[in-house]
TrEMBL record:
Domain of life according to the entry: Bacteria
Organism: Streptomyces lincolnensis
PANTHER family cross-referenced by the UniProt entry: ACONITATE ISOMERASE-RELATED, ISOMERASE YBHH-RELATED
Gene3D superfamilies to which the protein is assigned, alphabetical: Diaminopimelate Epimerase, Chain A, domain 1
The entry's keywords: Isomerase, Membrane, Transmembrane
Coiled coil: none
Keyword Isomerase: yes
Listed name of the protein: Transmembrane protein
Alphabetical list of Pfam families matching this protein: PrpF (PF04303)
Membrane-spanning residues: none
Record-level Gene Ontology MF annotations: isomerase activity
Length: 361
């Protein structure tokens, strides 16, 4: 890789990541992950020698390729590159980085652009779920600017409308509306991302604290870890001690005209906003009678729109439920408006591979 690797750095939603064509990376996962660690500058808490921004939200990778799925145009593999450990995880999706996949596919010639707008059908390889991203392409080119604004991102950019068809799995993966873990009532939902809903007050938190204050609370961190480990087992995910899912979201009554206030852990750091798929889980969970947080939420009975408050503003998401064949709640329509912006398109030069120990000195 001495000649570097073609790369497009994009902000997708409230995250930032490096986007690659699958053909430009090693096919073997271990070799690919080693290369990505060196590209992003991990492990190093500053990621000083790579593209990473020293935070999980800015240390992300999208790998995109043409899809063999007749219901998709492209395949999108999301990889979370740890900041301070030599770890690359494919155990989750990322709905924010997803916002950049459609524009990237057009930029790289995988999907032809429409004269006014383009829709790209995306298969999310991590879970097998699908999404459709629609965005402006005036004159057959991806729009570089626009007037859409999302909380947590300065300025404006072109809108990306993302719609999610219902996934194949159950909305309530434990089969119950509520579970009790470590003496705490929780609701486990999966509307594209395994998510655990917890009332902040049940953990002696207000739910309005700045993320850094919540991260600094060692007792809270210990409770959250215990809940997450058991929730993972109950949701059929096995041992989640070394994975980033499920996410935990603390819920509190809204304070700024929204439906609910959230603080989401990913899984240790507290999100400065909220992930798209995590928000999809929250919005669906609030509509389930008897679910944790349903009694706190202020919902408009005549609308599918749910405004979810988070530390840097809000996220609007359309969410509806239906009834599955088993009589239990099931996802209906889920859609969200995000923005994405290309930061640079060029060649990235990875840090050299570590020399084997025991060699010549």
């Amino acid at each position: 890789m001495t000649d570097g690797v073609p790369c497009l750095l994009m902000r997708g939603g409230t995250s930032k990541g490096a986007y690659f064509l699958a053909d430009d990376l090693p096919a073997e996962p271990a070799a690919r992950d080693d290369l990505l660690l060196r590209i992003m500058g991990s492990p190093d808490e500053r990621q000083i020698d790579g593209l990473g921004g020293a935070h999980p939200l800015t240390s992300k990778v999208a790998v995109v390729s043409p899809s063999a799925d007749p219901e998709a145009d492209v395949d999108y593999l999301f990889l979370q590159v740890a900041v301070d450990r030599p770890e690359v995880s494919d155990r989750q999706n990322c709905g924010n980085i997803l916002a950049g996949v459609g524009p990237f596919a057009v930029e790289r010639g995988l999907v032809p652009a429409g004269e006014e707008e383009t829709s790209v059908r995306i298969r999310m390889v991590n879970t097998g779920d699908h999404a459709r991203a629609t965005f402006p392409t005036p004159g057959g080119r991806v729009a570089r600017t626009g007037d859409a604004e999302i909380a947590g991102v300065p300025g404006t950019a072109a809108p990306v409308v993302i719609e999610f068809p219902p996934g194949a799995g159950p909305l309530l993966p434990t089969g119950r509306v509520r579970d009790e873990i470590d003496g705490i009532q929780v609701t486990c939902v999966d509307n594209g991302m395994p998510t655990v809903l917890v009332e902040a007050a049940s953990l002696k938190a207000a739910g309005y604290e700045p993320p850094e204050d919540l991260e600094a609370d060692g007792a809270l961190a210990a409770r959250l870890r215990a809940i997450r480990l058991e929730a993972g087992r109950l949701m059929g995910l096995g041992d989640v001690s070394d994975t980033t899912v499920p996410k935990l979201t603390l819920l509190a009554p809204p304070r700024d005209g929204g439906a609910i206030t959230t603080r989401t852990f990913i899984p240790v750091r507290c999100h400065t906003s909220i992930g798209v798929l995590g928000a999809a889980g929250v919005a669906a969970g609030l509509r389930i009678e008897g679910a944790v947080g349903a009694d706190l939420a202020v919902l408009d009975a005549g609308s599918d729109r749910v405004r979810i408050e988070h530390p840097t503003g809000f996220l609007d998401i359309d969410s509806s439920l239906t009834t599955g064949p088993d009589g239990r709640p099931a996802p209906g329509r889920t859609a969200v408006i995000r923005t994405a912006r290309t930061i640079f398109d060029g060649t990235v030069f990875p840090r050299a591979a570590a020399r084997p120990r025991g060699g010549h000195r």
